[in-house]
Amino acid sequence: MSPSIERDVRFLKGYAAATTVMLIVLSLAAFARAPQKAKFTEIDAERINIVEPNGMYRMVISNRPRSIGPIYKGKPFGYKGGNRPGIIFFNDEGTENGGLTFVGSRKADGSYTASTHMSFDQFNEDQVLNLDYADSNGTRRIGFSVDERANVDIMDLVNERDSINRISDSVARASALERWAAPRNGVPLVARRVFVGRDRAKSAIVNLADRDGKPRLRLLVDSAGAARIEFLDPVGRVTYSLSDTTARRR
Fold this sequence. Notes:
Elements lengths: L2 H31 L13 E5 L5 E6 L8 E2 L2 E2 L9 E5 L5 E11 L5 E10 L5 E10 L2 E11 L4 H12 L4 H11 L9 E9 L5 E6 L5 E7 L5 E6 L5 E6 H6 L1
Antiparallel strand pairs: 1-2, 2-5, 3-4, 5-6, 6-7, 7-8, 8-9, 9-10, 10-11, 11-12, 12-13, 13-14
């Protein structure tokens, strides 16, 4: 091989090597800049975590054994996971603020239970807006409810309760739990203000309560189709009732 041909071959080899390295570098750079997006026709998963760039939870979708327990500002508290199949939501601070859970099963003796629960939590507290279906062998309660809660941080509330539960004296523990569950500054820890739905007696009902959760006005159509409006006093006595038959007589 002549010196000129050898020189040309060496040049071509060097050029080819340099070009290859450049293409690899450009390809890797393009891949690094490109959004990493995958498309699936179908996927099976036991749990999916939707997270912020810093890893903070925004939503967790899971089966029962891999379900998440309560989270407060990114830290677990209260009880362990493993019993809430469904979807759990988290706020901007990484604190649980609602979710959708659902269960249902039949036992060997033929009896069954089923429920679906969707709720939204008050900030750093527990649920205040709920959509529920609960069924035990055909005894059903289905409806929408609005709760009111005292302004007590849920982490403080749970820590206080857990501390009380460690009291060895059962009488002292029960007394402390009773005080713990009492109203704070005159406001109950939780009071159901509104319920709209179908109750266990098969009545279609609208129940409106005072700030202590005591029903004061009730509109219902019972299982036999009779309609009435009831006004109640603070202890639950009906002080005035207007039925559809009373209205017709007038």
